[in-house]
Amino acid sequence: MLEPSDELVKETFWQDIFKSLRKDRMAVAGGIVIALFILMAIFAPWIAPHDPYAVSLDLQFQKPSAEYWLGTDMFGRDVFSRMIYGSRISLLIGIVPSLITMSIGIVLGIVAGYFGRRTDFVIMTISDMVLSFPSLLLAMVVMYTLGASLLNIFIALSIVGWAGTARVVRAQTLSLKNKEFVEASRAIGVKPIVIMLRHILPNCIPQLLVLFTLEIPGSILSEASLSFLGVGAQPPASSWGLMVSNGKEFLFNAPWVAISPGIAILLIVLAFNFLGDGLRDALDPYLKQ
């Protein structure tokens, strides 16, 4: 159980971060945009004005109007409704692989940094091998091997993304494992797993928060790239990347089909990057000074 003074310090630390974030207008704007997209994804059935999967060839390439705010696509489907439902898949692909990569990277990074020697050598060698391949190319190889599906996208992006997180956590672990509080815990016989979970991992959380906010837009862009190349989300799904891929052939005749989801990708990526920059500034003591 924490002492009152410890609770006060912990509360003040997080309050200081929120105060710093509130002063950063770009971070606040990014947080608002992210919240709006999340709400749009959650309440998609109630927000979408039309059925996103309803095909009507009589309504092909309708221009934006009062009834169809962003026009219709090559099958007469409402682009705005498909964008709303597409936010579910795009955000899911952004968040789930990021959580998986962060989990794998945290475990391997702490183990490598704490135990060192042969364990560190093996894990970092594998990490270097993963980082030596272009991430998109490696993801494409995995997708072509496993097949195009939502689950395989999670697997591909998780295989590609864990190495960077592992290196960051390893660096933090190396700087913390020789600190006095870790040495004291080791001296009184505390098990390594307890030291890693109770003393090292909590001190890595600020850096991991920043890394997580930057990992999500990377996953969204990777999914959009894979869908654009034909190995991402598959019909009848309506991810933003797939919508851009389907609309690229009609860019000059019906530009709204591809431009609208492209703008959505741009907004969500910028929002997460602005929020990540704000978190980095709030957590960096040198920037505060």
Automatic annotation (TrEMBL):
Main location: membrane
Keywords recorded for this protein, A-Z: Cell membrane, Membrane, Transmembrane, Transmembrane helix, Transport
Gene3D superfamilies documented for this protein: MetI-like (1.10.3720.10)
Localisation: Cell membrane
Record GO biological process: transmembrane transport
Residue ranges of domain ABC transmembrane type-1 in the record: 87-276
Matches recorded under InterPro entries: BP-dependent_transpt_permease, MetI-like, MetI-like_sf, OppC_N
GO cellular component terms attached to this protein's record: plasma membrane
Segments passing through the bilayer: 27-48, 89-114, 121-144, 150-169, 250-275
Membrane association type: Multi-pass membrane protein
Family: Belongs to the binding-protein-dependent transport system permease family.
Name of this protein: ABC transporter permease
Organism: Brevibacillus fluminis
